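thread: overnight batch results

M.L. [08:02]
morning all. the overnight job finished for the chain we discussed friday. pasting input first so we're all looking at the same thing
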Amino acid sequence: MNLNKYWIILVLLTGLIGVAGFIQAQERVLSLDECIKIALENNKQLLLFQEKTNDAEARKKEAASGYWPNISATGAYIYNHELYNQVDLDPRDSYLGKLSLTQPLFMGGKLYHANRQADIGLQLARWDYLKQRDDLLYQVKQSFYTVLLAQQLVRINQEAYAVVAAHLKVSQALYNEGKMSNYDVSRVKVQLANQKTSLIKAQNNLKITVDALINILGWEPSLETEFMGQLGYVEKPVKGYEEGLNQALGKRIELRQLLLQEEAADSSVSIARGGYWPNLLLNSAVSRQSYSLYSNGKIWTNSWTSTLSLTIPLFEGFATKARISQAKSQKEQVLLTKAQLIDSIKIEVKQAYFTLDQAKENIAGQSENVDTAKDNLRIAQERYKLGLMSDIEVRDAELTLTQAEINYYQATYEYIMAQAKVEKAIAETLE
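M.L. [08:03]
and the structure it wrote out:
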């Protein structure tokens, strides 16, 4: 009998563990690294840039085909109608089979530079993908910590609501003892209602930030999802300003792309100048022709021809000269854009370092302010219970603590994002 009891207890425990596991499985907790992994696999914008890279690879292969001969086969049926001069063509039917080959031998450098531009286009597409990937990592990080900040604001407002509710309970007790007026109790009730409104707003804001993060991830969670991370002050080593600026000017994708565009512009000038050069083509064809499709091989006519053609441009209405001018102007535009981008990067890096220094100074005293505000509120509540402090002073202490906690987490969030901004500005996050 005792053995049966043990079996029953074992079965019940197993069932309870299974139910607990099922409940836990209905929720998924994601860290920052897991969010990044999901975004890299599902973000639609990043996938779009991957497809653009695939397109550029196909274009490069298409450009390389210009070096190869063009081989084609032609089959034709010819019916000879009676001519207007009443001369009959006999026989009227004829059949033709033809195999042709065209091989460019010299095109004034146009084929080489066309392939060079296709190769540059592929490199630009890959840089575009890496830049989009780097931007996505920053967006995920920013959105993830925005969610953590929103979670902290909900927690702070919940604690503030609980503090005001406890304050109302004490006020009601003092009122019952005749130590507080009904007016003062009503003011605490109004404060509690206002705090509840703030809590509802914080909860709604959390839902909005979570939806924004999920949208960036490009992912529809099948389970309830929570995001877990540390929203705290952790100082990371950062390169000095001069070193960071030099790294930015050497590694920023935008500058690398403009260097490639400068090469592409040089190729465009060379292609345009190729208009002055002659073109040399080799054409070769093998054909068989007969007046009867089902006749024996004796009446089939076989022929083989080869043509080496040289085309020399003599006058094009100054079109080549105009194309050269266009290509040179496009190169000059790239050079001006590069100079403008360098100035913008210098300003961006300087502002990022300034923001980081400012965030450090801002966060330095926030933690101490929170501790001080907590002590002040504790003292105020004790003195209020003894009737040694007014209701207004207690509410001021509550408000001060709430604001101090909000300021601390806001400052922490700004410091984390300032770090991320510096890393992005100096291309520290590029792999």
